[in-house]
């Protein structure tokens, strides 16, 4: 018997993977199987409906089988694929970056009106993205605001490399620069907008996170310290020195951190302008001036 499924149809490949994922208790077996199959051979759900007997090549079969095994070990689908769509951009990932999440798009949506307002007033808007990871937030804003510029910082050089590659993918590199920095440490300019999706998970609960997160996401981007607020203390206490007149700060937060984070910024003489919830109705982003 052959050791690989040469000539397997796209529908059979999908069904086999879905069955394995269901038996393993994965939360979204249908979606996982569909995403991995499409990534390997381009077969969409419509393709499986209209041409279910279309064959995948032996090489594609081997790749798909390897991807299925990785998913059975709880490696996240998008980390296996090496990319994730965010606010209309398909962004590359690596081991030093978080996977951009749909909830973080709320941060972009909250900031964009101010960015456009600033451009209308001054002809541009300068943005500092602290802890950029893949560059998702800054690049999404630049893609929507062609006159804006962004400087992205991260402590992890591999994250900055990926962010730069993502900027080049969408020809945004001329308005996007990176600085390796521990928050503001190596920053010297002032900006119209400081934006950040910092680590905010309480240290003691990290071991209780889903395996998909705990074992595969970079700890540097997860661990917010004993109370989850370490990064916010730094941003709140130092941001004023890096903001232009009339500048603003936008941060993503944990679902139960609205009151505590608002208090940190209010104590540092910032005024809370707006709070936005995510797709599930949880507190997700705060806007300060």
From TrEMBL:
Domain Release factor glutamine methyltransferase N-terminal: 15-82
CDD domains: AdoMet_MTases
Isomerase in keyword set: no
Residues that bind substrate: 197-200
InterPro entries to which the protein is assigned, alphabetical: DNA_methylase_N6_adenine_CS, HemK-like, N5-glutamine_MTase, PrmC_N, RF_methyltr_PrmC, SAM-dependent_MTases_sf, Small_mtfrase_dom
Source organism, top-level taxon: Bacteria
Coiled-coil segments: none
Gene3D superfamilies from the UniProt entry: DNA helicase RuvA subunit, C-terminal domain, Vaccinia Virus protein VP39
Protein name: Release factor glutamine methyltransferase
Gene: prmC
């Amino acid at each position: 018997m052959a050791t690989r499924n040469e000539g397997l149809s796209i529908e059979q490949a999908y069904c086999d993977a879905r069955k394995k994922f269901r038996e393993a208790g994965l939360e979204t077996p249908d979606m996982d199987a569909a995403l991995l199959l499409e990534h390997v051979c381009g077969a969409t759900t419509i393709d499986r409906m209209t041409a279910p007997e279309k064959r995948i090549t032996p090489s594609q079969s081997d790749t798909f089988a390897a991807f299925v095994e990785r998913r059975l070990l709880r490696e996240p689908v998008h980390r296996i694929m090496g990319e994730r769509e965010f606010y209309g951009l398909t962004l590359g990932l690596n081991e030093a970056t978080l996977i951009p999440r749909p909830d973080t798009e709320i941060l972009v949506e909250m900031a964009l009106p101010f960015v456009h307002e600033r451009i209308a007033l001054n002809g541009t808007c300068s943005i500092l993205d602290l802890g950029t990871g893949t560059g998702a937030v800054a690049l999404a804003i630049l893609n929507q605001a062609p006159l804006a510029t962004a400087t992205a910082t991260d402590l992890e050089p591999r994250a900055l490399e990926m962010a730069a590659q993502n900027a080049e993918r969408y020809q945004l590199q001329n308005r996007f620069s990176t600085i390796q920095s521990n928050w503001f440490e190596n920053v010297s300019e002032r900006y119209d907008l400081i934006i950040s999706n910092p680590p905010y998970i309480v240290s003691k609960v990290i071991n209780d996170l889903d395996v998909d997160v705990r074992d595969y996401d970079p700890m540097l981007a997860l661990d917010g310290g004993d109370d989850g607020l370490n990064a916010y203390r730094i941003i709140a206490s130092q941001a004023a020195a890096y903001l232009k007149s009339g500048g603003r700060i936008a941060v993503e937060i944990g679902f139960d951190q609205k009151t505590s984070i608002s208090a940190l910024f209010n104590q540092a003489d910032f005024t809370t302008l707006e709070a936005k919830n995510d797709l599930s109705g949880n507190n997700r982003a705060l806007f300060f001036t």
